[in-house]
Specification:
single chain; alpha+beta; about 30% helix; globular
Length: about 110
């Protein structure tokens, strides 16, 4: 009996808190921004889109929620519906799918 693949969104991003409606396009933007911050080990990055602006902060720590763990990020956003925050993490499985090392592999000496 094979193992069922997790739903696509759950593999990539896990939202811990959001005070704004998280439309698919916004979730994808936050995911891509977090991947770039993680890939470059940068602290912050500005984001903008249709009726949206703000910034994403790399919290530079790993969070775990049950069996889901990964690097944590926080977005502060201004939208057409008002301002808000999103706290989320990239899952280890999502990092693996993107071809990036997980947190544990990053800490290993070369």
């Amino acid at each position: 009996m094979g193992t069922a693949a997790p739903p696509h969104g759950w593999t990539l991003i896990s939202v811990l808190f959001s005070s704004v409606r998280l439309e698919p396009a916004l979730a994808a933007m936050l995911h891509e921004t977090a991947l770039e911050l993680y890939r470059t080990d940068s602290a912050t990055q500005q984001v903008a889109g249709d009726a949206l602006s703000g910034r994403v902060v790399n919290l530079r720590k790993t969070l775990q929620l049950g069996a889901i763990s990964g690097p944590a990020f926080e977005a502060t956003l201004e939208t057409a519906r008002g301002s808000g925050k999103v706290r989320y993490l990239l899952t280890s499985q999502g990092l693996e799918l993107a071809g990036l090392p997980g947190e544990a592999a990053r800490r290993l000496p070369n």
